[in-house]
Amino acid sequence: MKNRNFYVWLVILFIILLCSAVGGIMVGSVGITPALIIEVLLYKLGIISSTDASNAQQIIIMELRVPRVLLAMIVGASLAICGAAIQALVKNSIADPYILGVSSGASVGATSVILLGAFSFLGVYALSFAAFLGAIVAVSIVFLLAHIGGRTSMIRLLLSGVAISMVLSALTNFMLMMSKEQGGIQAVMHWMLGSLGGAKWNNIGIPAVVFVIVFTLLTLSYRQLNALLLGTETAATLGINIERFRIFIIIIVSLLTGVVVAVSGSIGFVGLIVPHIARMLVGSNYKVVLPLSALLGAIFIVWADMGARIAIAPEEMPIGIITALCGSPFFIWMLRRQRYAFGEGE
Amino acid sequence: MIQLQELEFSIAEKAILRNLSITIEEGKFIGIIGPNGSGKTTMLKMIYRHLKQTSGSVTLHEKEIWDISPKKLAQQMAVVSQESPVLFDFTVKDLVMMGRTPYKKWLSSDNVEDFKIVEECMALSNVEHLANRTFVHLSGGEKKRVMLARALAQKAKILVLDEPTNHLDIEHQLHLMDLVKDLPITIITALHDLNLAAAYCDEVVVMKDGTLYEQGTPTQVFTEQIMWDVFRVHVGVSKNPFTNKLHLFFYTQQSNS
Lengths: 346, 257
Prior knowledge:
Chain A is mainly α. Chain A has helices at residues 2-26, 34-44, 55-89, 102-116, 126-146, 154-178, 182-193, 201-220, 222-228, 232-237, 242-264, 270-282, 286-310, 319-336, and strands spanning 147-148, 151-152. In chain B, helix 4 crosses helix 5 (140-152). The longest helix of chain B has 13 residues, at 112-124. The A-B interface holds A 1-2, 91, 93, 220-221, 223-224, 226-227, 229-231, 233-234, 236-241, 279, 283-285, 341, 343, 345-346 and B 45, 48-50, 69-75, 77-79, 81, 83-91, 94-95, 98-99, 101-102, 104, 106-107, 132, 134, 136, 154.
């Protein structure tokens, strides 16, 4: 029953994603028609030999809007599948991809680049590099704190995630407090709330590749993820090497979250609510939850980014404000519904 | 054959199991009984490798169980533990299918044989009609039966059960015991209901204070003396006139007067 639903939803969401992508390319300070988008795409792919689009229009489409929409899709899909995986890992429905300290670690890295000029020898890559480094260092500390006597305790993982996040946020706030540069402070705020403004062809490659790899690995591990939801004891009696599998999930999820946060800042909420929406639609089997989460996350962020560009045009709104503003009411509506229990048994 | 040898287990210096040696023959129906806190569940957890003993050894076919890979062990031993906190909603069919996990490699999908086994096991534990229902909405007894179907789908030669009849009404208690009794595999089950143990087990292991008190057939074990020593109750041993199986009557001095 639920499986048939899954294929229906898969097709519907795929079509919605394509339409949203076209919408995402259209919206902005220079209006562009769908026909023009298709024309330019075909022209660039060498299928048609001439186009009426002006050079400026071509550049706007190909160099600004298309990479931006692609990045939005990658970021949304990545955060959603990471959220789904983390929720199975810690067996907790309030978990999101940042719970292991990724975003606060990345913030420290980004802030030290923006305010203190760290890693300046890396040029334009300094920010992404520092954010990624910060994320990975934070997750590693959290993991080591939770790893006692050859076992990783999930409750310790959650709590040390909270503790380390607090310490790192304090560090970020301290740097912000001590800074005299108004522009820098604003830049940090903007970064922390997330933005896809930096999307270029040359910085969406790594996130795309890492997303494909992690998505494939997670989907191939759907049986183990399902089994984790039965409890560690039962999962172990189903032949799963729990300890090894947990470390594997922590590594791939942190890697993808780190890469994504490095290019887009820490966009909140997607990783928390999208997996729940997917479960509400098709049930909890990770075989179907993962692909649907990816599609839903991608759609959500493409729309949120459109909102970010329109809301206070010509200024850009940080996308994190949009995801929280639009996501929360929806989430609250879900909370009030009786049919979906957020994993709360009876 | 499962052998526990001089098994010791302690948490923070406190001994939970001590000097426990038991041999479990293949194909037998073994009941584990004992008062609360006598170490039944702990011993089972050690058999299915959830806990590691402080000293001593647990061997399966003369091989240390900690040296067997998790997958291989799961193909040989299925478990229905007391734990059943399922997060989020799975359909019953999906859950029973999880029993096939030990046979799956990374890229293998569920094949015709798996579906056949799942159908069979659902029929065996009488949950076929629930196949498309979601697990969280089932009653406690239905959940237990689904978890049993899941364990059966592992097609293991050893089935470990921890208080399988908890939360079941009398019909389903007896049905479950009948079903398990008919399986041509080794059954190791902790039981609270001594009459069920007396009626169904080939052999009963009596535990007291974290160690073996007695092991033997129900007739050897369910005696006035042993029951008094272990459970501090008087027992009258009789036969169930309808099934001709062993039946126990319990009383205390107070209820006697």
